[in-house]
Amino acid sequence: MNFDALQRRVRRAEAVVQVRMDETVQHWDALETTWRRSWTPGRIVIAGLAGGFVAGRLEPGGAFSGARWLQMIGSVSGLVASAQASIATLQEAGLAAAAAAAGAATGEAAAHADDDAPAPRPQAVAEPPPGTPPRAAEAATELSES
């Protein structure tokens, strides 16, 4: 076989691999969509009950003891909760930024209208009378600094 024939075979094989890879990505996307749609709240509860039953029936102290299952479930639930909190924080930050941008436009007009008004004076912090014991936070700070 000559060199040109080998090059044609390689190009043909690369084309087949590319087509198979595209098909695999399409099938994977379809599987992911179907998987996410199939997890309804009722099915999640049933899966949890079935998992709890299986964990309870396995021998105690084995590789799949109930304590390990509970530890894993606790870890996963903590991970999911922190991810949801992060997403919620990002969404709230985006909403706050949008509100601030909208408020800045109206705030500039209000600020120009209040140019003649005096600026508010800061409140003075009242000092405790001499001889009174320090508050708990102050006492702890003094102890940790020494």
Description:
The protein has 146 residues and is mostly helical. It contains 4 helices and no strands. It is extended and about 100 Å long. The N and C termini lie far apart (87 Å). The mean pLDDT is 77.
The main β sheet shows up as: none
Q: How many beta strands in the DSSP annotation?
A: 0
Beta-strand residue fraction: under 5%
Q: Which value, in Å, is the CA radius of gyration? A: 33 Å
Distance between the termini: 87 Å
Helix content: over 70%
Order of helices and strands: HHHH
Would you tell me the structural class of the helices and strands? mainly alpha
Separate helix tally: 4
Determine the mean pLDDT.
77
Q: Assign an overall shape.
A: extended
Uncertain residue ranges: none
Helix and strand layout, with pairings?
Elements: H1 3-38, H2 41-57, H3 66-113, H4 136-145
Overview features:
mainly alpha; 146 residues; 76% helix; single chain; 4 helices; extended
Short structural description:
Among the domains are: 1-38; 41-104, no CATH class. The protein is built from four helices and no strands.
